Fold:
Amino acid sequence: MEVADEGSTDLEAVSSEAESSDVAATAPADAKSAPENRATDGPFDSDEANPARPYVDLGGVKILPREGLQLRLEVEEGTQRVVAVGLDFAGSTLQVQAFAAPRSTGLWNDIRAQIRDQITGQGGTLVEQVGVFGPELVAEVPAPGPDGTPVLRLARFVGVDGPRWFLRGVIAGDAMQNEASRAAVEELFRSVVVVRGGSPMPPRDLIPLTIPKSSAAI
Structure:
């Protein structure tokens, strides 16, 4: 999990910009969570994406290139498996991961609770709110600073349940405090295409990612 913002933060100030998520907190754990306009505005299923657009194909996800976007692949040290896509854009970072999910139920409500437990167990703090993608978490996550001294870094966890997949995003950097950067990163997350494929996969398995044939610098 990457949270790369080096600046000081104010969790309450950020959380005040979105609605309270009392309704989301009481939703069934297996209910799908996605914007009503997901199929038309994204994040997209591979069957919904415009085939004429010049996506960077990473296997399980496709990324739409744009000026100023830098793409990184995050690799698991032991297995050398690509486990996440890191996107640097608008002074911010966006990490995306896509997982297999059941056809009729969602994962985000349950996974959100697990993230909440993990962060609080590490001594972090968080608020749950409703944003443009639905229920989300804004957290102050303990992390080592440049000199090794522990600091709290601000990160936003968003998630969308699609058809047979779940897409998670972790946002950090300027998008946590700057409205223009936030809108740019949200649009970037919406433009992601998930390629679930037709092979059977257990729910919560990471949809395989591959190294693109083109350069990772966009």
Summary: Confidence is low (pLDDT under 50) at residues 1-24. The chain has one domain: 11-190. The helical segments are 11-15, 22-25, 38-41, 108-121, 179-190. The longest strand covers residues 150-162.
